[in-house]
From TrEMBL:
Gene3D superfamilies: Glycoprotein, Type 4 Pilin. SUPFAM superfamilies: Pili subunits (SSF54523). The chain crosses the membrane at residues 86-110, 116-138. Signal peptide: none annotated. Belongs to the N-Me-Phe pilin family. InterPro entries: DUF2628, Pilin, Pilin-like. GO terms for biological process: cell adhesion. This is Fimbrial protein. The keyword Signal does not apply.
Amino acid sequence: MNIECPQCDTVNDTTADRCYSCGAVLRPLTGHEAQQALYKAFVGPKNEDYYVAEFINFDEQGRAGISWNWAAFLVSMYWLLYRKMWLWAGIAMIVPTLLVTLGLLILVMLNQTAGIAVMVAVVLALGFVPPLIANALYYRHCRNTIAAVQARQPDYLLQLEELEQRGGVASKGILALGILVAVIVPRLVQAVVTPAYDNINGRASVDIALEYEQEAASAIGKYYRQHHEVPPSLAAAGFDAQPPEDVSDLHLDTANGQLELRFGIGGRLTGTRLLLSPTANAKYEVSWRCLSPDIPRKMLPPECR
């Protein structure tokens, strides 16, 4: 037996809830069926059965729980764009860059072990957290949109129409624009963050090198107080410490006692020099002035500027 639409007289199959022609409701919907129809209208035909089943399961549990979404695992940011979750897509563009930058800063400023641990945690989080919470995010997005539409529009059929317009998946043009933005924004963030990281990394290298050079200066100062002359070599002053990785050479000018540290190959500090210039008083006590003719000022400690 078929059902005739009361609005347009179109004959519909008995299993139809709405008229194939005009969309009018053919039979009263229960609360569960009405909610399911709202979900279907918002999700659209793309993977409708999967998402509606997930949403109903969340309803039955009374909360949005953890589940697995393969699309969000493989292309999380693009999935967010595809499902029109613009805010979350923007967060997915920026947060990974910021987290990776944080890991690099910790790697440089604190210690290698902590930095590597943070980087591993970031990679694991970015890989597994999005697909675990993707369905829950989409569910909340759907519920919030439905609530907003129902608050503004009391008519059920008009609610379905508006949800169909606001939901579904992004058009190819909008998706292409979103992907373009997704490519550009991280590059802009990187353009701002990379110089700052280079400066911090360079500053850390200079700090380590200065500490090494000051150890040599201390040995020279002790030698000068005892012998009232500049030592003929660093070894004669009792200094034989291994240089830091970034340092290629530490030279003592035996004529005036000045120390010249030179950075090795690699990075912005390649070939630059860090000098410690001595001044002795009548008691043969030596004070040192730190300076550099070629290291960028922002990378120098305050006492060397």
